[in-house]
Write a structure and sequence with these properties.
Structural class: alpha+beta
CATH superfamily of the largest domain: Gcn5-related N-acetyltransferase (GNAT)
Distance between the termini: 36 Å
Strand content: 25-35%
Strand order of the largest sheet: 7-8-9-10-11-6-12
Radius of gyration: 20 Å
CATH class of the largest domain: Alpha Beta
Helix content: 25-40%
Number of domains: 2
Number of helices: 10
Largest sheet: 7 strands, mixed
Order of helices and strands: HEEEHEHEEHHEHHEEEHHEHEE
CATH topology of the largest domain: Aminopeptidase
Length: 272
């Protein structure tokens, strides 16, 4: 299945946030123009890599840098042959976890690890509801994480909802007294569901609310016809980031299979 960054919805979303989206042969390329110096082009997880089209884009937009994040290892040789080098800092997560949503709900639940099943039983009285007020959702997010984390501005969040429409949901998890414990954004595109972004406050972490909201997101994606649920990144020893270890343990408690990607390949050139 195609990666979400190759969907028409994602192209529309990035177009609303300052990028130029070009689509040719079913492949999305995204261009960010900068005064005087030229532009940066990024092509993420395409189904195929067509160097002639990439070179035409580079010339058209006077690209200073081209970033290609291949979907599989078979494209590595082609990229290296054309002057691309592996970046030490990937732009997209290079390892992720995916759940098969074609199985019955009961089977998916049985495949969860013991701690996840326990947490879901413990949080059965928590409620998960859709937030229709994106600004309010963001304010709750900001209040929950304080200055510890950067959160997206309101404009991109509104653009995300507008571009994905009913294939995008902003969930909030509350305790029995309706106090907010956690929030999460889930997307569906081209038959895949995605755990996009999330937050949990101190009370939510103590109450294990994050398990409940992710489980509801999985079921939401399944109802919309998604065949696979993608957790959008776990810890990768090839590109170590120790801050990812905690949520990787959490995500792995939902079972699934590990999927690896090669990383980001970059070519720097003098704009013509």
């Amino acid at each position: 299945m195609k990666d979400i960054r190759q969907s028409t919805q994602y192209a529309d979303y990035l177009s609303k946030t300052g990028w130029i989206a070009e689509r040719a042969s079913g492949i999305n390329s995204f261009i960010r123009k900068f005064p005087i110096v030229g532009s940066v082009i990024k092509i993420q997880r395409p189904e195929k890599i067509e160097m002639d089209k990439i070179n035409k884009l580079a010339k058209k937009y006077r690209a200073l840098q081209i970033i290609v994040e291949p979907k599989n290892t078979t494209d590595i040789g082609l990229l290296i042959k054309n002057g691309y080098k592996l970046s030490k800092s990937p732009y997209l997560p290079t390892k992720t976890l995916q759940i098969d949503l074609t199985k019955p709900k009961e089977k998916i639940f049985q495949n969860l690890l013991k701690d996840a099943r326990h947490a879901l039983r413990k949080t059965s009285r928590s409620g998960v509801e859709t937030s229709s007020d994106i600004e309010d959702f963001r304010n709750l997010w900001k209040k929950s994480v304080g200055r510890r984390r950067c959160i997206p501005p309101l404009k991109p969040l509104l653009a995300l909802k507008k571009s994905f429409d009913d294939k995008c949901t902003f969930y909030l998890c509350t305790d029995p007294s309706k106090q907010i414990r956690a929030g999460a954004i889930f997307l569906v595109a081209d038959g895949m569901g995605y755990y996009w972004q999330a937050f949990t406050n101190k009370e939510g972490r103590r109450a294990l609310a994050q398990y409940n909201i992710v489980w509801e997101g999985i079921l939401w994606a399944k109802r919309l016809g998604a065949k696979i649920f993608d957790f959008e990144g776990i810890y990768d020893e090839r590109f170590p980031n120790k801050s990812w270890l905690g949520f990787t343990h959490f995500k792995k408690s939902f079972g699934g299979i590990v999927v690896e990607y090669p990383g980001a390949f970059i070519k720097t050139r003098l704009p013509l």
